[in-house]
Amino acid sequence: MSQPVTTNPFIIMLINMTVVFLVLIALGLVIRLIHVLDPTVKKEKAPEIAPAPVEEAAPVPELPNSYDGVEPEIVAVIAAAVASMGGGNLKVRAVHPVEREGWKQSGRLGR
User: Fold this and answer.
1) Which DSSP letter does residue 88 get?
2) C-alpha to C-alpha distances, 36 to 27, 28, 45, 60, nearest whole angstrom
3) Alpha-carbon torsion 73, 79, 84, 85, what sign?
4) What share of the chain is helix, strand, coil (3-state, %, to 5)?
5) Virtual CA dihedral for 67, 82, 97, 93, nearest 10 degrees?
6) What is the pLDDT of residues 26-58, one digit of tens each?
7) In terms of Cα–Cα distance, which of 38, 91, 94, 47 is closest to 66?
8) What is the Cα gyration radius of the chain?
9) Using the 8-state DSSP alphabet, how is residue 3 labeled?
C-alpha cells in the first residue's frame, strides 16, 4: 500500500469540495447544452401584430380616502404589499392605526 498524500482533514475537505463543485458546474453546462441543441422543441416565430390605436382613458373619479393621520409613505407600502400578494384590482381606501395597550396586551389579543 502506498502512503496517503496528506492526512490534513482541511486539505482533504478542500479537494473534495472542489471536485463536487466542478462536477456540478459540468452538469449545469451539459443541461444548458441539451436545452440549446434539443431537436424536439418547435421554434415558432411570433406573428407580427400591428399596435392598436391608443384611446384616451376616461378620468377616474376621486374616491374619498381616509388615512387618519397615517403618513402617505406608509399607505403606499401597504398598497404595494396588497398588490404583491395578488390583490388584483383591489384598492386601499382606508387605513386606520390599531390602538395598542402595550406589546404584551397586543400579543394576548392576537392583533
Assistant:
1) T
2) 14, 13, 17, 48
3) positive
4) 45, 0, 55
5) 30
6) 999 999 999 888 878 776 776 777 777 777 776
7) 94
8) 30
9) P
Instruction: Provide CB contacts within 8 A for 74, sequence distance 6+.
Output: 95
**Cell numbers at residue 69, please?**
393621520
pLDDT tens sequence across 87-103: 667 777 777 766 666 67
Q: How far apart are CA 63 and CA 12, in angstroms?
A: 68
Kindly list the distances between the CA atom of residue 61 and the CA atoms of 15, 65, 66, in Å, as whole numbers in the listed order: 68, 12, 16
What are the cell numbers at 89?
Answer: 384590482
Q: Model confidence at 11, in pLDDT bands (50, 70, 90)?
A: very high
C-alpha cell at 95: 387605513
